[in-house]
Every structure is written in structure tokens, then in C-alpha cells.
Amino acid sequence: MPQQPTAHTVKSFDEEIDQLRSLIGQMGGMAGAQISEAVDALFRRDAEAALKVVARDAELDAMEQEAERLAVAIIALRAPMADDLREIVAALKISAVIERIGDYGKNIAKRVPVLTQAAPIGPSVIIPEMARAASAMIRDALDAYVDRDADLARQVMERDQQVDDFYNSLFRSLLTYMMENPHHITPSAHLLFIAKNLERVGDHATNIAEMVYFSVTGQHLAERTKADRTTSITAAADEED
Q1: Are residues 210 and 221 in contact, defined by beta-carbon separation less than 8 angstroms?
Q2: Contact predicate 54/110, CB 8 Å
Q3: Taking the CB of residue 86, how many other CB atoms lie within 10 A of it?
Q4: Half-sphere exposure of 46 (CA within 13 A, CB side)
Q5: Residue among 97, 69, 210 nearest 150 (CA)
Q6: Structural domain spans, the chain
Q7: At 17, is the pLDDT very low, low, confident or very high (cuts 50, 70, 90)?
Q8: pLDDT digits (tens, 9 = 90+) for 93-127
Q9: Which of 104, 138, 136 is closest to 24 using CA atoms?
Q10: What share of the chain in percent tops pLDDT 90?
């Protein structure tokens, strides 16, 4: 007969799960900070602060590797089942998504030194609001993970449209701006890539929320369908590193 888990084993398992949740929460906090600080550096025209954001990306990469190591160790040593297994697999996937969000923060920061050499562009005032909305989605998606809150996860998914609306508004404004004055083409193109990175952050926060919802409930929500009318920018933004 299979050996029944002892109280000590159960306590150790719970501690390992708590450690994994804590690490994922820390990663989410850092990724959100990377986005916020990159955008802040952009609007303060602070190239030095942007370089610090780029340098910190390695720390987030190391945290992802630690989360993966811990999740795999729990699966190998504890053989979790049902709800516990779903949560650990979700953590494994979520850590990779958070690392990608950090990459978007790094990508934004890399464009700051170029933009500090150009005059500020009017439509760019949308970007801080877009960044705040995307960062809030990250924070709430990770809160939903830590608290096992399926309702909050669903709410995060519903807010993705707000980030998309910001992007679409900025996209139209910057295209008009470029057509009216060719001198604005280069900085406007950089801002479009930044906006696309933020739109992708919203997508990834939504992906985290979907994983949390499944982890908690064991059910998938209806598949989202989302038209993307900016294919070329999407491809280029996703390929940045």
C-alpha cells in the first residue's frame, strides 16, 4: 500500500508551496517595477535610469531559473496531484511569462537613450496611463495567484481591453503625427514599439490570469479571440530581446 503522508511531510510540502508562491510574487513585483521604471525614465528623459532597468533584467532571469528549479523539485519529490499539481504547473508557466514581461521592460528602457535626443512628442502622454493599466494588471494577476482568487483573475482578463484601447488610440495619433511632420517619424516609430511592448504586457498579464483561473477551478474559460491589425509591429516587438 502507498505510504500515507505524515504531518511532517504535509508541513514540508506546504512550506515549499508557500516558498514558490512567494518567489512568483517577488518576480511579479520586479517585472511590474521594470515596466514602471522604464516608462518613468522615458518621461524624465533619464538615460542613466534606463540603463539600470536594462541591467536588472539579469536578476529577474535568475529568479525564473530558481522558480523552475523549485517547481520541478516539488513535482519530483512530492508527486503532487489534482489542485496541488495544477498550481505548481501554473507557477512553472507563470514564471516564464513574468520573465518575458521583464524583457518588455528592458526593451522599453533600451529605447530611452535614443528618445532623449529627440523633442518630446505630444501623443506620448498616453504611454504613462497605458503603463499604469498594464502594471496594475500584472499586480492583480499575481495577487490572484497568491490568494487563489479566481474572481480576481477573471477581472484581470476583462481589463485587457483597456490596454488595447490605449494602444489603438496612440497608434492612430502617432500615424497622424508622422504624416504631418516627417521629422517626427523616427521618435514616433520608437514610441510605437514601446506602446506595442506595453500592449503585450497586458496580454501576458491576461495569460497569467487565465492560468490562475484554471489552477484554482480546474476549468478553462472560453478562448479569447483578439484581432491584431498591426502585424508588422507585433512581430518586430516580439522579436526584440
Answers
A1: yes
A2: yes
A3: 17
A4: 13
A5: 210
A6: 10-239
A7: confident
A8: 999 999 999 999 999 999 999 999 888 887 788 99
A9: 138
A10: 63
Tell me which amino acid residue 230 is: T
- pLDDT tens by residue, 51-83: 999 999 999 999 999 999 999 998 888 787 777
Give this prediction's pTM: 0.85
Number of C-beta neighbours around residue 234 at 10 A: 14
Q: How far apart are CA 46 and CA 83, in angstroms?
A: 46
For 118-173, the pLDDT digits (tens) are 888 877 889 999 999 999 999 999 999 989 999 999 999 999 999 999 999 999 99
Eight-state DSSP code of residue 218:
S
Placement of cell 479569447 in the chain:
224
CB neighbourhood size of 118 (10 A)? 15
Q: Which three cell numbers stand for residue 210?
A: 487565465
| Cell digits of residue 173 | 495619433
In angstroms, the CA 240 to CA 40 distance is 20
Rg (CA), the chain: 20
Amino acid letter, residue 61: D
Cell of 133: 493599466
Q: Count Cβ atoms below 10 Å from residue 2 Cβ, excluding itself.
A: 5
How many Å separate Cα 50 from the centre of its chain? 18
User: What residue has cell string 535610469?
Assistant: 49
Architecture of domain 10-239: Up-down Bundle (1.20)
